[in-house]
Amino acid sequence: MELNIRVQELTRALHRVQGIVEKKTTKPVLASVLIKTRGQDRIAVSATDLEIALTGDYEAEVIKEGSITIGAKGLYDIVRSLPEAHASLKRTANNWVEIVCGKVKYRLVANSDEEFPKLPAFSDAAFFSVDAAVVRGMIDKTLYAVSTDETRYNLTGVYCEALARETGLRMVATDGHRLSVVERAMPEAPILKEGVIIPRKGLIELRRILDDAGEGARLAFVDNSAIFESSGLTLTMRLVDGRFPDYQQVIPTAFSRQIRLSRTTLTQALKRTSLLAPDKGQGVRFDLAENMLSLTTNNPDLGEAREDIDVAYEGEPLRIGFNVRYVMDALSVITEENAVIELTDELSPGVFYGAGAEGYRAVVMPMRI
Amino acid sequence: MAFKGDPIQALEAGTPQPVYAIDGDERFLVDEAVQKIKRVVLSTKAVDFNYDAFDGRTAFLARIIDAAQTCPVFADRRLVVVTQADKLNLDASENLLAYLKDPNPTSVLVFVAARFDARTKLYKAFQKAGAAVRFDRPRPREMPDLIRRRAQAMGTSIEGPAARALADAVGTDLGGAIQALEVLALYVGPNSGRAITVQDVEQATSVTKEESIFALVDAIGSGDHSAALRGLHGILGVSREPPLRALAMIARHYRNLLRARSGLDAGHDRGEVQAAVGVPPYFMDGLLAQARRVSARGLAGGLASVDRADRVLKGGALEPMRAMEQLVLNLVRLSTTSS
User: Fold this and answer.
1) Which of A186, A235, B92, B292 gives the lowest tally of CB atoms within 10 Å of its CB?
2) Partner-chain contact A281 B67, CB within 8 Å
3) Whose CA is closest to A226, among A54, A85, A111, A60?
4) ipTM greater than cut 0.90
């Protein structure tokens, strides 16, 4: 294999796979990237951790066809520090790789591509078109609520299902203490017979490449995998093999109290009051009265913080506690300036969403303060 | 061992307590207690939304308390289980003490550990709340009766001599006894209407060999003649191990003890000793405890006795059971004179 490539192009290719390659692995090949020529003017750069696989197509001048497997982190560090705009890569005897860029020359240990895992191919996958910006927004609105507890594997991803009544997709995430659900219309009806769980790591990578995705983004679900394609990139994610809980039962369908308030004001007030919250325990008390919400935290070691904010509320007073981090996470993905909070009593979940916005609800379980 | 009047048994009657601290050597009963709490506390609805599990080695106490303070969702209670709770960083233990004084009535917080330090303020707080449950291994003389009661609870019955034979076979490993009872209940047939006999025990059970050798060497090390002989009969009689194989297992165990003892005498740490001996990590506690009890010279003497027994067995000078009994009594004598 021998090729010339723009340093910027190769840096971009290697940057994209850094989140996928395994840093601590018993299989060294999983810390490697596979570079393979495709015709005379392109190369494919692939990485996998056996759960997620990403292949990207990049411009290059191919002098001699072939492929190589080489440590992804080391190569990335080298390539991004190269001084000139162009570099050449050449595989020599015994799987050495020579990188030449201006007066700089590296000779690196690499491996044959035979050791690299065979990447899944889904030639018969039934893709449906998606709007990349919409999917990105949906991931943003759910990813924060995914559980990081590996023992609860069925909560370690975002649940995706097709909307029953319209052409659209619903994403749901929960860690057992809060839940986020978002629905959005899609250009084409999702080809998805039943709900699937996309793993957190896969969604983080999908979120990254969605930033670069242009027109023609499409998604498919085949067997136990989800495949995303856009702008020469193919991301394959193995789905979580688990049963997502019946989330509908925890979304309140009725409420007795509705508060309208500035999202920014509430966020800033929460930041200030949480400064006195006990270390890593972040309970904040909401005292609701007519057109007034008081936030209070109490830390026996430090003291007490209280802030009153103006809200639009006409109803009975209520005292309820929430984990401040959960509330701030929910508020952070609301894009509207005003937010709505729906409450029933001190033991029932609170629902947060943007005023006037449809299709997103964040449910947060209350806590005893 | 906790049975009568303990907080776990009280679960059957009704409301679970808001906190529990469960520990003890008898892992089977510890696990059984946690499972029982799970069954009672978690309803079939919204289980995923009302159950939190933490590992004490990595969890933050504040997160655990936050989880316990969170209201349940469409259920009466939330369950928070902390395993390896004795490894929990308790820098902010006053927060936990405050929680124990006023626990959330809609949560059940369960701390599980191999053994809590009973002298700590925290454990005393659990005790004060009536929530500390310790499942220690039963005494050997309690085993036959416990086996009979367990058999009854499983809907089967076992004859007295069979319960004693099973107790001889498993030692004080109640979990092993219960597993064996499950096999025996199937062996005699669920609808046969007959009790488990000694013959059933001999034909359908197998003693965990490593456990049995451990128990035998433990008894030797503590100078307990009768327990040692009982352990030997369990291995040769009920498990029907050939004497030469039993001898090989005893020899291997003594070689491991000698390696461990030499490592300890040389000032090596636990990891180095384990690497030298080459046994799984879960055997190390027991092995080190045994190795500390006898001097290297005593262990070398033990190996010499094993060598003599090998020649006696192969030469046919003594009936195999007598030769093995003689070996065990020799080892007991050596351990009591060379520790």
Assistant:
1) B292
2) no
3) A54
4) no
